[in-house]
User: Which sequence fits this backbone?
């Protein structure tokens, strides 16, 4: 997912700053395809890892996972409109790379 987000951010940056819209469109398209392809799989892996890490108390683990998901969504609802007003869609995509990086690091640590 992080790779897809990075490609989308790169495509948006190129679209804003470059005279090569074809490359920007290719990066955007590939980024969206990569993100979409791995988005569903990431949730399956997340649940599989949770069952391996917590063989007992699985319900508590799922509750914690759903709670964290809601906290991230609430944070995005707070931050995204402010970043959008100041830096536009490119700024939003760059800011959203932060939770993507945290997610990637967390996945690697597990």
Assistant:
């Amino acid at each position: 997912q992080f790779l897809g987000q990075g490609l989308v951010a790169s495509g948006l940056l190129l679209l804003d700053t470059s005279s090569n819209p074809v490359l920007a469109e290719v990066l955007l398209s590939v980024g969206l395809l990569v993100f979409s392809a791995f988005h569903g799989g990431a949730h399956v892996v997340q649940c599989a890892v949770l069952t391996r890490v917590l063989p007992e108390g699985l319900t508590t683990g799922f509750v914690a996972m759903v709670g964290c998901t809601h906290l991230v969504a609430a944070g995005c609802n707070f931050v995204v409109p402010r970043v959008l007003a100041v830096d536009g869609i490119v700024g939003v995509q760059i800011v959203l790379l932060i939770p993507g990086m945290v997610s990637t690091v967390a996945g690697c640590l597990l």
Notes: The chain has three helices and no strands. The mean pLDDT is 85.
